[in-house]
Amino acid sequence: MNAIVALCHFCELHGPRTLFCTEVLHAPLPQGAGNGDSPGQGEQAEEEEGGIQMSSRIRAHSPAEGASAESSSPGPKKSDMCEGCRSLAAGHPGYISHDKETSIKYVSHQHPNHPQLFSIVRQACVRSLSCEVCPGREGPIFFGDEQHGFVFSHTFFIKDSLARGFQRWYSIIAIMMDRIYLINSWPFLLGKIRGIIDELQGKALKVFEAEQFGCPQRAQRMNTAFTPFLHQRNGNAARSLTSLTSDDNLWACLHTSFAWLLKACGSRLTEKLLEGAPTEDTLVQMEKLADLEEESESWDNSEAEEEEKAPVLSEGAEGRELTKCPTDSSLLSDCGNWQPRKLSVFKSLRHMRQVLGAQSFRMLAWHVLMGNQVIWKSRDADLVQSAFEVLRTMLPVGCVRVIPYSNQYEEAYRCNFLGLSPHVQIPAHVLSSEFAVVVEAHTAPRSGLHPAGCEGDQSLSKYEFVVTSGSPVAADRVGPTILNKMEAALTNQNLSVGVVDQCLVCLKEEWMNKVKVLFKFTKVDSRPKEDTQKLLTILGASEEDNVKLLKFWMTGLSKTYKSHLMSTVRSPTASEPR
C-alpha cells in the first residue's frame, strides 16, 4: 500500500511533533539510505525465504557526514527538540524491512527524508493533534484533500505521572493519496491501530501505577506552593515514550507493526480490470445482493419494533419461552458439527453426461434450456444440490430459481429447479406435462449394472438414475442451437473441463446478446410479427426451439438493462424525428 504510517506527539514545549514514521519504497533506496545495510546483513537476508525480513540500517556516519546530513535534513533542529520529541538517538540510521515477495522495502525513521513527504506528514501531524479531532479528543477521524493527501488519524492518551493532567497526547496517522482506498480500509485500520494503541497504553499504565505507588504525584503537587507548572517538575517536562512504557525495544516493535500494517492493508484489497460493460449475470447478481441487503435491513427494523412492543414476561413465562429455544438453536449446533460435502456429487456437465448417458442427458439439458421445471428426487440432499449447481451453469443467473430440497411439491412458477425427498408425491398433471422432467436416483441393486461412465467413479456407482418426462425429446430432433454446441464441446475429449466452462460462458453471452436485440425489437420498439420473424432469421434463431429459448432467457435480463432501454426510449432526444 502506497502510504505512510506515523506516530505523532503533542509536546508541551514544542507543540505537535512527528516521533516515528514508516514508508514504503518500491524503488532502490535513496542515496544515504540504500547503503545502510552492512554486507553481512544483506547476505543473511538473501539466504532467507520469503516474508518480511527486518534489519537495522547500522551504517555509522562519520562526523562530517553527520553534519552534512543534519544541515540538509528537512526535520527540526536539535535545539528545537526535547526528549519527548525525539524517538531515535542521534546518528541512529533507522530500520528497514525487506519484502522479498514483492521486492518492496519498508523504511522507518523519525522523519521522511524527502522534503515534500516531510511537509505532508508534518501538516497531517499538526492537524491530527490540533483541529482534526473527534469529541473527547480520543478516537478515529478522517480528513484530507487532493493536494496534501488523505489521513486516517486515531488520537489517544498515554499515562505519565509527571505530565499535566497525568497524561500525554499522541496519535497514529495513516496518509495516502487514494481517498477511496483509505475509506474502504477504515475497518481494518481501526482494528489494527486500536490494537497497537491498547498495547502502548497497557505498558504505560503499568509504569504509571508503579511510579504512583512509590511516589504519589497528586499529593505532592497539592502540598507544593503554587509555582509555574513547568518549573515545579524540576526539568522533567519532557519524557520519551520508551521511558513512559519502560520498553527499550519500542521503536523496533513499532517498525514491525507499521510494516506489517502497510503490507496487510495493501494485500487485502485488489483491483480488477473490467473490459467493456458488465455482463448480465454480473448485473443480476448485484441486484440480488442489493435486494438481500434491503430485506435484511427491513427485517432488523421490524424485529426492533416488535421488541419495543413486546410485553414484559414474568419469570415463569420467560422460562416457558426459553424451553422452546432448543429446537431452533439446534440449527447452530448442527453448524458446529458441519461436515465436508460427501463424495456423491456431480463434478461437471461432462461428468453428469457420462453418468446419465447421452440420451438422458440431452433430454434433461433440453428441458433446462427451455425453462421447464426440473425435479430431482433423491435421499441424498448433497447429490441433488451438486446436480443443480452443475445444471445452473447452462442458464443465465436471472433465469435460475432453485429450491434445493423440500418435503412437498412446489409449483413451477416458484422454481425451475426443485429437489424432493423420495416419499414426496408429485401431482399427476406434472408427471404427464411436457413442461417438466423428473430425475429419480434409486439405490442400485448389488447385482445390477452400474450406469455408463461410473466404472471409475465409485461414489455414484450405488445410484441408478431414471429420467422421465411427459414430452420426451426425440433423438432425431434438431433442438436449440446452443444445446448442439454444448454437446459438441462436452464430447470433445481434447478440451479440458476448464476450457469447456469458458465455452459455455461464451455461448451464453452470445445468446444473451441475441435476447437483448429481440427484447428491444419487440418490447421496446413494438415491431410487427413479420419484422420479428425477419430478425430471428438474421439472428439464426428462427427454429421453434430457439424462439422458445430466447423468450425464456428474456426473463433473465437485469432490471438495470430494462430500465435503461425504457428511459432511452422515453427521453426527448430519442423521440425526435430522424
Helix proportion: 40-55%
Beta-strand segment tally: 13
Low-confidence stretches: 32-51, 56-72, 229-236, 312-343, 447-456, 574-578
- Largest sheet properties: 8 strands, antiparallel
Could you tell me the mean pLDDT? 77
State the assembly state of the protein chains: single chain
- Number of continuous helical runs: 22
Taking the alpha carbons of the first and last residues, their distance comes to 52 Å
What gyration radius follows from the Cα positions, in whole Å? 35 Å
Broad shape = elongated
- What class would the helix/strand composition place it in? alpha+beta
Assess the beta-strand content as a share of residues. Answer: 15-25%
User: Order of strands side by side in the largest beta sheet?
Assistant: 3-4-5-2-1-8-7-6
Topology (elements, then pairings):
Layout: E1 4-11, E2 15-25, H1 39-47, E3 52-56, H2 63-72, E4 95-99, E5 104-109, H3 115-128, E6 139-145, E7 149-159, E8 167-176, H4 179-184, H5 186-214, H6 217-223, H7 229-232, H8 241-245, H9 250-268, H10 280-309, H11 315-322, H12 325-336, H13 349-356, H14 358-370, E9 373-377, H15 381-391, E10 402-406, E11 417-420, H16 428-431, E12 436-443, E13 463-469, H17 481-491, H18 497-524, H19 529-539, H20 544-553, H21 559-570, H22 572-575
Parallel strand pairs: 9-11, 9-12, 10-11
Antiparallel strand pairs: 1-2, 1-8, 2-5, 3-4, 4-5, 6-7, 7-8, 12-13
